[in-house]
Amino acid sequence: MKIRTGIAALILVGLLATAGFGAEFTINAGIGLNDKSAQFQSL
After folding, report:
1. CA–CA separation, 43 and 39 (whole Å)
2. Could you give the C-alpha distances from 23 to 27, 28, 29, 35, in angstroms and in order?
3. Model-level pTM greater than 0.70?
4. How far is CA 26 from CA 3, 10, 12, 21, 42, in A?
5. What is the pLDDT of residues 18-40, one digit of tens each?
6. C-alpha–C-alpha distance, residues 4 and 37, integer Å
């Protein structure tokens, strides 16, 4: 039983980490695009 909960906990942590990383990556990409469009508008 302990082994199963340990594996479940690892999977949960892994999913949370991937979701957080994905969200951060998406936000960073969005900010990068906004910066580029702002640069083009100022030219």
Report:
1. 6
2. 6, 9, 10, 18
3. no
4. 34, 24, 21, 9, 24
5. 888 888 888 888 887 777 776 66
6. 49
